[in-house]
Amino acid sequence: MEQRILGKDLKVSAVGLGCMGMSHAYGSPADKDEMCRLISQAVDIGYNFLDTAEIYGTSTDPHDNESLVGKALKPYRNKVIISTKFGIRFDENDKNVNHALIPDSRPEVIRKSVEGSLKRLGTDHIDLYYQHRFDPNVPIEEVAGVMADLIKEGKITHWGLSEATEENIRKANAVCPVTAIQNRYSMMARQYEILFPVLEELRIGFVAFSPLANGFLSGKYNENSSFEKGTDYRSVMPQFKAEAVKKNQKLLELLNSLANTKNATPVQISLAWMMCKKPYIVPIPGTRKLDRLIENAGSAEIKLTQKEVTELDKILAEIEMSEVFGGSKIINK
Ligand SMILES: NC(=O)c1ccc[n+]([C@@H]2O[C@H](COP(=O)([O-])OP(=O)(O)OC[C@H]3O[C@@H](n4cnc5c(N)ncnc54)[C@H](OP(=O)(O)O)[C@@H]3O)[C@@H](O)[C@H]2O)c1
Questions:
Q1: Quick check: 185 and 285 in contact, CB under 8 A?
Q2: What is the C-alpha to C-alpha distance for residues 16 and 34, in angstroms, rounded to an integer?
């Protein structure tokens, strides 16, 4: 697969693999052995960039996903870039399927997190370590200082911010150069395009999470789709509601017609659109299925010209669209 550079020197496959949904947020966890096989198939196909987080757990193991990724990547450790995240925990008292998040980036908490992640990932260093959410109780400069220390100690090699704002990017980067941000970005969620100038000025990559609007942009869901209550976040996501599916038909038709002209699939158009927009955008779609893993990797070969991207942007700005999931509630404690 084509490679891209995040920040100054982090070389990753143009499409990464988001591993979260194998353990968390998309219904009961998938079979571990099957997912281990899928991750090794991903490496064979050319994915070398795998994303997880300390917090992606199951009802029986709060850190299941990191352990899964660590186990699956053991034979390939030196061939792959592993990203993981620190700095949030779930509010266990929250009864919603998507529990609220409690940010906690106190230096002593980060120190404990990094040791746990290294152990579960079975590695002596993390290639890209993100602050999962900003903690209003800890200045971002202090977090950046901890990252600089972890880099000096060799425990991490690069760092980044998730759901970053321009202010935090600038403050953080001034203390310890930021390699990438990881923010929500898809045809249905374009609010962070506002960050493109600062990312270009400071040479920081943009890793796009939920690039398929949680799968909705595949067009594989309709008003009859149902999701496991209690474990599947899609059961509460606005884009999957029956009225939203209806409202989004024009968008799905647009994707289908572009897919036909480019001999691609709607998913490939969604991913190619962002990759062709900026050379520093790297989507990390998640899947539990081999055929989709292959399809998503194939999007790196679909080329849209800048003119086509701009025209598409114009249509996207005008076309009728439902609300899209914007993330779980954050509680500041
Ligand atoms: N930093 C953060 O706060 C944050 C938040 C959310 C996610 N993330 C990261 O971003 C990654 C991706 O985000 P996401 O999983 O929320 O959303 P996504 O990648 O937009 O969508 C994932 C969903 O799309 C489906 N899908 C994937 N490829 C498909 C294809 N070719 N055709 C049809 N359906 C397809 C998957 O279903 P199947 O499994 O059935 O294929 C899955 O349900 C996560 O794994 C995680 O690593 C980070």
A1: no
A2: 19
DSSP 89: E
76 is catalytic: no
Is 214's C-beta closer than 6 angstroms to any atom of ligand 1? yes
Q: Is the CB of 215 under 6 A from ligand 1?
A: yes
Position 169 in a domain = yes
Question: 41 φ, ψ to 5°?
Answer: -65, -35
**Would residue 71 count as lying in a domain?**
yes
pTM (predicted TM-score) = 0.98
- Domain housing 174: 3-213+275-302
Q: 113: domain CATH number? A: 3.20.20.100
Pocket lining: 210 vs ligand 1, CB cutoff 6 Å: yes
Give the bridge partners for 286, in sequence order: 18
Q: Is 287 in the pocket of ligand 1 (CB under 6 A)?
A: yes
Tens place of pLDDT per residue across the chain (333 aa)? 999 999 999 999 999 999 999 999 999 999 999 999 999 999 999 999 999 999 999 989 999 999 999 999 999 999 999 999 999 999 988 989 999 999 999 999 999 999 999 999 999 999 999 999 999 999 999 999 999 999 999 999 999 999 999 999 999 999 999 999 999 999 999 999 999 999 999 999 999 999 999 999 999 999 899 999 889 999 999 999 999 999 999 999 999 999 999 999 999 999 999 999 999 999 999 999 999 999 999 999 999 999 999 999 999 999 999 999 999 999 987
Among 161, 214, 274, name the best residue to mutate to test ligand 1's pocket (greatest count of ligand atoms within 8 A of Cβ): 214
